[in-house]
Amino acid sequence: MSIVSNNIKYLRRLNGLTQEQFSRRIGIKRSLLGAYEEARANPNLENLKVIAQVFGTSVDSLIKTDIRKIRETPGITLGQSTTGIMEQVKIPAPQPPVNEVFAQSNEPQPIAQIVKDFFQEEPLPRIPQREIQPRVLVPEPEPSFQPYTERTSISSNTSIKNGGDSYPKNTDNRIPYVKRALTKDYLANYQKSEYIKSLSTFTLPFINSDKSRAFEMGSDFPMPNSIVIGSYVEHWANILDGKFYVLITPQQGVIYRRVYNQIKVKGTLLLSSDDPSIPSFEISLKSVAEIWEVQAFISKEMPEPRLSLERAKSLIEELSLELNQLK
Questions:
Q1: Which segment of the chain is annotated as a signal peptide (predicted)?
Q2: For residue 146, which of 50, 157, 163, 295 is within the disulfide window of CB 3.0 to 4.6 Å?
Q3: Residue 37 and residue 170 in one domain
């Protein structure tokens, strides 16, 4: 079960509502609400906003925070009314699914079907094919990437296919390393085996480097200027809710986010950060060049220790005792 499914079920029961009552209140089918609560499907951003508005909380709280634990902490409320649910909340009329048969399917659908259903564009005039001449690399080339949606899966052979070019596995057990200064260059040439071979490399004893790559991270990683090592994600169905991934995109460059898979429902990924100052947003699978599941990271800084609930209670008791002695 995911955090968001547990939170929806908990808040519904807390307000004494059946699945039928609550699904009608937010304008969706009862079966879809059941799928949300059993973690068989993820609410899209519009439904998350409606659910958060009904319960007087926020989208980030629904997907990041175990609300059951928050309610057990004195002094924190969810903004509920005395009748259980916030009153005078305007619920938008239910919208029909983009593709009802596709949304209810539990089996991974072909990438071609995803593109057909969600990324249909006006046909362009047919241009006669010309022989492609080798392109000479120039400093800071414009990003020209093959969308992740058009990529074929990785076979057991010695190369990873991506469009018309390919790049070999790291058969020498060394991990290619992409510096932040090379982000634009990497976006323009990541499909080329010769470019990948030209990158700096290093080895780690506990990482299987066959499908691994290292990226220098920015401020969206908890410890800036760290190096994150990721394992290549072959198919969108392998993207698991709530796990951390490194995404390579032309607009944002190299970003580190917690990902929620909405591909089967609407062809997008919901990206969230544990940093409350970084807002969550959706991104089309068509706008992603590569996805890497985070395996490890290297940093010169040591992580800050987390303050446990028991330690926090102990500090409060000590402070209260000192205040009483001063009276």
A1: none
A2: 163
A3: no
